[in-house]
Design a protein that fits this description.
Layout lengths: L9 E10 L2 E2 L1 H7 L9 E2 L13 H5 L3 H18 L12 E6 L5 H11 L12 H5 L3 H10 L5 E4 L5 H14 L5 E8 L4 H9 L21 E2 L1 E9 H6 L6 E10 L12 H14 L6 E5 L6 H15 L6 E3 L2 H4 L6 H15 L1 E2 L15 E2 L4 E2 L4 E7 L4 E8 L2
Parallel strand pairs: 3-7, 4-5, 4-6, 10-11, 10-15, 11-13
Antiparallel strand pairs: 1-2, 1-8, 1-9, 6-8, 9-16, 12-14, 15-16
Length: 399
Amino acid sequence: MIESRDGRRVVITGLGVIAPCGTGLDAFWAGLGQVAEPETERTIADFDPKEYGLKHTEARRMDRFAQLAFATAKMAIADSFGEDGITGYDEWKCGVVLGTGIGGAHAWESNAQVLLSDKGEKGVSPLVVPMVMPNAGAAAASMRLGLRGPVETIATACASGTHSIANGAKLVASGRCDVVLAGGSESCQTGVMRGGFNNMKATSSSGVSRPFDIERDGFCSAEAAGVLVLEEYEAAKARGAKIYAEVLGSGSTADAHHITAPDPQGDGAYNCMRLALEDAGIEPAQIAQVNAHGTSTPLNDAAESAAVARMFGTDPGPAMTSIKGVTGHALGAAGAIEAVAVALSYVHKQIPPTMSTQNVDPQIVSDIVLQWRDWEPTYAISNSFAFGGHNGSVVFGPA
């Protein structure tokens, strides 16, 4: 990682995840292998903010995406440091970088309904601004968990979670931070967002997410949150921390092509992966797992497969999987929960399957993982590609 000073390495020492396929690391991992019920929108029905210490009045003042962000950040810190929280570090060098694609959609829409009612502007909540603002999730984690270093928000649509991990790792590698909570949170299953996605024909009409399948017909929108604790390697080792994997490098490019459609040649995706590998100091042939963006939309999956084949070859080429067959597409949280899946694959020594995909499109030339596949943990790359043409890739390796 080119930002590294004095040989500082960045490792993952804690994970938190809330997703439609499971809350918590064990349930999430097991859920990655279970067939999801057909649902165009996938939400977390059993999420209760009280279980994470938020009183009713506190929860009412936070949009649901911020509640998910805080709960997941708390979970990740507990996984890394225990229930007492972060100890042994300068609080001014402990930061937060969380992404979101939309921000407080529920608060925005409910207050818009009030505005259009007989109550008018006088009925709008005085709390609507801090509930709607995209940085509310990062702020909630910072204030409630006592992290006082850089607290920043990335908003690059569906690449937000991946870009947040990349930027958080740079803060640790450069020495500006010792610990960073990095990831993303999203909850935007509202009428306006639903109508927008459906009317642009981006969502699945069948309610089944089938990445890379010949019958794929769009994505299933989901709410979710994922947070990684990123920590400097020598310090983590000294305190005996559990280390999931190392963050070796990242890439970020733009298609500069279309607001919603990917570059059909895949140049943006290809060069994003190329730059991530250069940053990590890894050769393409060393990558054994690709956690794909894999949304189940015809254009995205074809473009990503072409870019991966161009980057890594197909003889044999790396194993490629998409967890969106069960999680759905969590937009600004997608890259975060996918990074959690990659980190867990180092523990379990398995690559999760691309669920609900049965007949891989003949035009998809990558090695799509359809069943749990054993692997000896080595280098992996996770991709996110977003509306606006934003591309993000992060390279992981065993520590």
